[in-house]
Structure formats: C-alpha cells, structure tokens
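Consider the following assembly input.
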Amino acid sequence: MNFTNLQIQTESLPKVEDLVLKPISNSYLKIIILNKLALYAGLIALVFGFKYFIEKKEDVELNLWYMIFVVIVFCILNLIVSLLAFKKRKYAIREHDVIYSKGIIIHSMITVPISRIQHVEESRSWLARHFGLSTLKIFTAGETGSDLSIKGLPHVEAKQIKEIISDKINGNN
Amino acid sequence: MEITDFSQPLRQSSKGIIVIFGFKVFQFFKKFFVLFIAFGVSLIRGKSFANITPTMILLGIIGIIVIILVIAILKYLNFKFYLSKEDFHLSSGIINKDTTIIPKSKIQNVYIKQNFLQQIINVVSLKIETAGDKKSEIEISALDRPTAILLKKRLFNKLSVASEELDLVDHIEEPEIFFKVTLKRLLLEGLSQNHFKSFLLIFTFVFSLYNEFEEYLQELKLEEHIDDFVQLDEDTLFNLLITNVIIVIVVVLISLLFSVVKTFIINFNLEVVEHQKTVEINKGLFNKVSLSLMPSRIQNLVITTNRVKQYLGLHSLSVKQAMVNQKQQKNFNIVALEKEQLNYLINKLLLNYIAEGETEKPSTYFMRISALEMLSLGILINTVLLFLFGVEMLLINFVFVPLAVLYVYFAYKKAYYRISDNYITIGSGVIDTITNILEIHKIQGIKLKQTLFQKRSGIASLVILTASKAVTIPYITKTEALSIYNYLLYKVESQDKNWM
C-alpha cells in the first residue's frame, strides 16, 4: 500500500504571499477611465436636470455651484481611488488554483482551486473588443462569493487560460 | 401490500385532481385578491361596477372554477412518471408536452411533504431536487404514503438490480427513531429563543399602531377630552412612561407567544430517524415534511444555543446542504437536542469529528472594531432622538451604554476558531452561541480581506466559501491568516476528495 502520513511542515507549504501576481493589461485603464467619465457626465447632467425641475415647480433657488462642487469633489476622489485600485488588480494561475486580488480600500485576494471550478467563460464587451481585451469568468458551485471574474485580460491570454483550466477540469473528471 | 411496479408509466393517485385543483384555486385567488376586494367594495356600496350585476359575478366565478377543474383533470391525466434502470422519467403538460429525465445519480434530495389539504385526503407529495439550477425541481403532488416511501427508496438506490436485496435488508433492519421531541421541550425551546428580532418587529408594529391610533383620536377631536383627562394626573411624563411600559410588556408577551406558536407549528412532532447511512427528519403541523440528510452532501453544520438554552439542555442543529433553496434550507433544522444527542448526530453526519486542535482567538482588534461600531450606532441613535424628542431622551444612554459594553464583551468572548486535520470550527454570536463546522475538503474558495485601516495594524479577515454559505474568521493577524490560507489550499488541492 502506497500510504504515507508525513507531518506537514506549515513553513514548507507553497506560499501564496511569495507569489508574484501578474497585473492586468494596461489598456484596461482606458476602459475604466472611459466608464468613469461617462458616469461623471451622467452625474453632472443629473445635477443640472435636478435644479431645472425643482426650480420650475417650487420657488426655491438652489445653489448650483455648491452642488456642482460637491459632485466634482466626489468624482475626483472616486477617480483617484479607482486609478490607485487599478494597480491592485492582479492575478495568477498556479498548477492547482487561480488567484485574483483587487481593491485598495478593501483589499481582497481570492483563490479558487481548479478542482472546484464548474465552468469557465470568456466574454468581451463592445469596448473591450475595441481594445483587444476580454473578461475571464470562473464559476464554482459556491455562493456567488466564490465566482471570479477577471477583467481586462489580453484576449489571447484569456483564451489560453480558459483552455488550460478547461483541460484541467476535464482531465480531473 | 401490493407492490407498485414503477417500471410502467404511472399516474398519481386520483386524489391528485383535488390537490391540483385546490392549489390552482388558491393561486388564482391569491393573484386576483386585490381585484376581488375592489369588486367587493363596489358591491357593498351598491353601485354596479361597469354594468356588472352580482349574479354575473357569481356566474363568472363559477365559470372560472369549472375551467380550473378541467385544467386540473387534464393536468392529472397528462402527468405520468416511471423509473428505468438509471433514470427517472416524467412526462407532463396539457398543450406543451414536457418530458423530463433525471439520472438517479444526479438526484440531490427527495422530500415527502404533506400540506393541510393533503393531510385531509391522506396523500403526500414527493419532491425531487437535483443539483442543477433552482428551477429543476419536480413535484408529484398526490401519492399514497407507502408508494411514496417505496419510490423514494428506489430513487436512492442507484443500482436497480441490487435494489431488491437492499429492500430486504432495509426491511429487516427496522430504522430506529433516534430522537422525538416532547411537547414540554418544544415549549421551552419556543420560550428560550432569541426574542430580540421578533421583539423589534412587533414593537415597531405596535408602536406604529399606537401612533396611528393617536392620530385617529386627534381626528375625532377627542384630544381635548384626553387633555383634560391627562391634566387630572398632572404628570404627563409619568403617564407617557406608564403607557410606554405597558406597550413594552404587551410586546414582550406577544413576541413570546409568537415564538412559541411558530416553534410549535414548524417543529410539531419532530422526529429524527436514523437509517444505515442517512438521517431522516420528520416534522410539521400544517405542513408535514420528511427529509433525508446524506452525509456526503452536507456542506456546513451550524449549532446554535444560548445561555438559557444551555442551562435547559436545548441545542439546535442546522444542516446546510449544497443547492438547496432558501425556503427548504429552513427545514433542515433540528431543535431541542440534548448535548449527548447533538454530539451523536454530529458524529453521524461528520465522520470522526473530534473537537481537536488548538482553539485560537481573533486579535483584540476585534474588540476595537465592535466598540467602534457600537459608538457610531450610539451617536446615530443619540442624534436622531435629540432631534425628534429633545434632551430628555438622552437618558436612553443609561440603557444603551451597558448594553453596548456587554455586546462588545460577549462578541469577543464567543469568537474563536479551530482548525484540525479535516475540519474547521468557528464560534461566534452575541446573545446566541453559534458554532459553525465545515469539512476542509468542501471548501470552494478562500478569500483574504483587508481594509486600508487594517493594513497598518497588520490585521486581516479570512472568508471561507463553501457551496452553501460563506463563513468568516474575523480579524486575525495577517501572517496567521496567510498561513491558514496556505494550509487550507494545500489540504484542498492535495487530496483528491470530491466536494459532493
């Protein structure tokens, strides 16, 4: 019988903290900025619209500049945070698992063992196609919390990873 | 007893028509409830509603009922099922014919249920749940009990060739009723529940009623009378206090009653039957359910108790399985267990579970963060009360501050985690004492979380994701978190154990 029961040295286990995670494609930053700009434009338009409608109905004068100021400060802060957070979006594929880390205010690093993956999906939005990027979605049987979606991977690489994972899943079954 | 042959296409018991009919009528009335009220109101006012007379409405209702009956009969006639060697086949549908085939190996769970109507006409419904999406459930709504039990047994036997032998074995080995709840224990269970939630719910309800009632009084211009009445006492504040105390007492009584009645209805005649491999739960007053627990499908065990319950020897065990919908999840709850019975059941469901390994506590950061939470809650409550009622209401801090301190103290005291060779045990709770147990090889993913503020103190939280729920080891040092992270990943990836 080929059975061993050696003591596990926790120090010698593969360490996730020593791993060099790969950053996602830089072009994804453009997508983030474009998305954010669209959002901010919407917000500012909302402020103007709000003022217009309120003043028409009721005879109150709202301080437009004050409101715009608040919104712009919010936008700038939001943009700075998302630019900084972009640097935190990193991923790695190991022999047995997929790791994805993100977030600056709340940093999280999630690992899904490949043997627990149910299926992999690679999807591209219109904008992502334009920049040659795609999103890799990894589904597990767990609650929504354990599903990964790695955004902003170069299209070729996403396809490769998808192939590797699919092969491994099918190999295991 | 005549043994039903499941290899031929079968219909349900003819009483199924009644069940389908009852269900459809109920559904119909539920859907058009608002419409009926509108009709009713306009009828009472004596106005004809768009030229419709009461007789026409009556005729309409009779017509609808006849249509529903016809649909029920057609549904019954078109509903056929049979068992082949490896699959369960079902054909249904009146106009659109559906054929469903479920491989026996994919069946997650088989429940036997009995609602009020089914209890009257003495049939049961059998529900088959698969691991697929939430919609792929099948319900056979009327079978007599022996047939249902036989069918259930057949569905669980993966090899139908060996089924005859297995049946024989099962017949010889009479399953043993392991635990049966007594009325007294059920009563105690209801009384000793954490009433805080139902208390808050009912308190808001009663309070809004009271407010509403006050407005109503004002509308009737009774206010002057009441003012006179109040002024007789001279002390308005005292009077208000008395009213509020009475409200609180009434609310406490109602919430007690509420919990007791709820516990009774859900857990009436709770029975835990032990089979060779599975454990069966039977319970319910209006809705009788019977469910089987398969050890291999269990993802999480949650044990809940509290101080009072511990003293009375009452523990509840809730079993979380994969892919079970929220409504069903509640049924996997066994209440009012003795300590020994609890330990026995845990050992039955999780092989070789021993509370071994070192018990570790979260970092003291846990206390700081819960104190901060309580502080912000306190500030919020204070500002709201200050604006709404004035300075006197700040007296509430005399109640709030000790409660907050106790909250922080108990939350930290009850928090611990223990990682052994095969199991993770996590303790939590404030009023309740909650113990979460899961098997390491059932982990679906691990997440390390750290906020910007925690980074400075070197603190992180670990979220362990399974197929049924996520459990958190809160606020431990980052080095500790990483070593657990690596250890669990190693455990999951090096073993070739399936999670289901």
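The radius of gyration of chain B is 29 Å. Ask yourself how this observation constrains the way the partners meet.
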